[in-house]
Amino acid sequence: MSLLKETPYIQICVYKIMGIVQFSELKKPRLLERLWCVPFYLSFILLCWHYNTHPHPDVVIIEVIEIICNLENIVCMITTCFYFYRRNNTLQSVLIKIDKIRSDHDTTFTNRSKRILLISLLALIFAFAPFMDTPPIFLIYIYFPITVNCFDLLFLSDIMTSIYAKFKLINRKFELQAYSTCKIIKLKILQQEVANSEIQLMNELSYLHSSLVQIAITVCQNFTITILVSLVLWFQNVITTIYYVLYQSIHDIDFNLDHVGNLIFLLYSFGWLFSLMEIFTGVEAEASKACTLVHSAWHKYSAEAKINPKIRHLQLISVRLLSTKLRFSARGFFDLDWKFFHLMVATVTTYVVILVQLYI
Question: Residue span of the signal peptide, if any (predicted)?
Fold first, then answer.
């Protein structure tokens, strides 16, 4: 699949099975590629419904929580599947646009490390599943959504890593232009033709940068609904897992593999949230460097060279880059940055304190 060059083939196959990717190469998606994920989601919904319609031997409060979480999983997975279908054509066109921008930077290490981290933690969760004192159906309706969300995050990471590489390329060219400009000024050979050439190249780079910002915003908009759904499930799973761990601890239930599995699950959950924020903040930080680099070039011109309308155009380029500053948000509800990460951690902590105060 040429549009995801850095993604392992096995991972692409998982994307297709889950319906995250419904296209191949540059061709229009076929009906089979659109529908072969449907049996998996239908099977999941039927299992969840079967679990809800049968009595549970657990404590009443835990049974109620499980049923509510189960219904929420069904709604979230239906929503996720629908938006996988809806965003497919847009993401395909976005990947084609990104692929047309050549990049000479190797970004596989950053993406590979994130992939290894998340998949390893997810594998640990599945490895402990057979040893946990929990019904298999319960594990399925908990683990299937987090698996879908994990690979959806990896797909987002694949796209954003490509965008990050393009911003890196643009910034490097801006930096080279600023360096060459400084060298020309020091050698006292700054000519009008040279200045015009340098500024014209920076102007073209600024337009490319603005286009890339719009592409990044488009990607974020197409992932927003699935991110919101994933965050709802994340909050639900973290709170219920902490609740269950506290319940076991307070009622003097012996430490067993259930505790270890729950702790690994919490580690994965916070790792997933950390990775999500790191993806967006990393691209934002790289995109914001362009304005600083252009302003630096303008400062060198204005400090050591004669100012003219052509050179002053650098100031307008700097203002343009500043006005198109990249900011990721979830439909305007909140920004996808480290402040939101801190907010989520603080909210979970607040709920845990309330549970402890009420003696659950």
Answer: none
